[in-house]
Specification:
single chain, 122 residues, alpha+beta, OB fold (Dihydrolipoamide Acetyltransferase, E2P), five-stranded mixed beta barrel
């Protein structure tokens, strides 16, 4: 009788522990909204995305030319939607000068042109 009682108590404790930890239960969906925020429509990568780092060799109101460490020249088209930043703060296009080191996120568009989405000045 004593063994039977000990066995029942052990089985009951194991079952209670299993239920408390949620083993075998399916996860419940969270009622909270995702915490990820998107600060720009250009935040996520796309297969056409291009990231280039180099020195500014020419800049105008419509184009930005940079030269990479491997001496490759890339010309980006600037649009009214192109954002310019420095130290994670917005800057004016006029703040970008020849010789600045920049990181450009752009996209290949129809006609094989590169359009600058974000220009970050180091």
């Amino acid at each position: 009788m004593r063994r039977s009682l000990i066995l029942r108590i052990t089985l009951l404790a194991a079952t209670a522990g299993w239920l408390i930890t949620g083993c075998g239960a399916t996860p419940k969906p969270s009622s909270e909204a995702p915490t990820q925020t998107v600060s720009s429509p250009h935040t996520f990568s796309h297969p056409r995305d291009v990231h280039v780092k180099g020195h500014v060799t020419a800049i105008s109101s419509t184009s930005l030319t940079i030269t990479t460490k491997k001496d490759k020249t890339k010309v980006f088209v600037l649009t009214p939607h192109t954002r310019f930043t420095s130290q994670h703060k917005p800057i004016a296009v006029t703040s970008v000068k020849v010789g600045n080191v920049v990181m450009v996120k752009g996209q290949h568009q129809k006609g094989h042109q590169l359009v600058a989405l974000i220009v970050h000045v180091s």
